[in-house]
Amino acid sequence: MSAVCTIKTTNGHYLTAVDEGGHTTNAIQSDRTVASTREKFTLVPAGDSFHYGFRSSNGNYLSAVGGGGVANADSIHTDATLSNFGSWEEFQIDCTDP
């Protein structure tokens, strides 16, 4: 089951897939205060009950470059497609009650 989600920062801004996805540089912004098409992601189960992909409105997935652990401005891409959806596009979501 897929759900359409937004990702909101603590000060009320939304993560945005620039141009609805498809970028390897400057792929994500967080300056929008209203959620529109670019701020909506479809949560896609990866098939193991623990990991999910975030698909942008144009069908591309968020990718953690190298599977994560990269500390630069381009550590998140939005250019992956279903044909190359792999471990870099799988995220585990941990939630706790406040």
Could you characterize the architecture of this molecule?
The protein has 98 residues and is an all-beta fold. It has no helices and 8 strands. The strands form 3 sheets. Strands 1-4-5-8 form a 4-stranded antiparallel beta sheet, with no helix packed on it. β4 (41-45) and β5 (51-55) form a beta hairpin. The radius of gyration is 13 Å and the shape is globular. The model has no long low-confidence stretch (mean pLDDT 91).
Main features:
98 residues, 4-stranded antiparallel β-sheet, 8 strands
Question: What's the structural blueprint in terms of helices and strands?
Answer:
Blueprint: E1 3-5, E2 14-17, E3 28-32, E4 41-45, E5 51-55, E6 61-64, E7 76-80, E8 91-92
Low-confidence stretches: none
Question: What's the order of the H and E elements?
Answer: EEEEEEEE
Q: Label the structural class.
A: mainly beta
Number of separate strands: 8
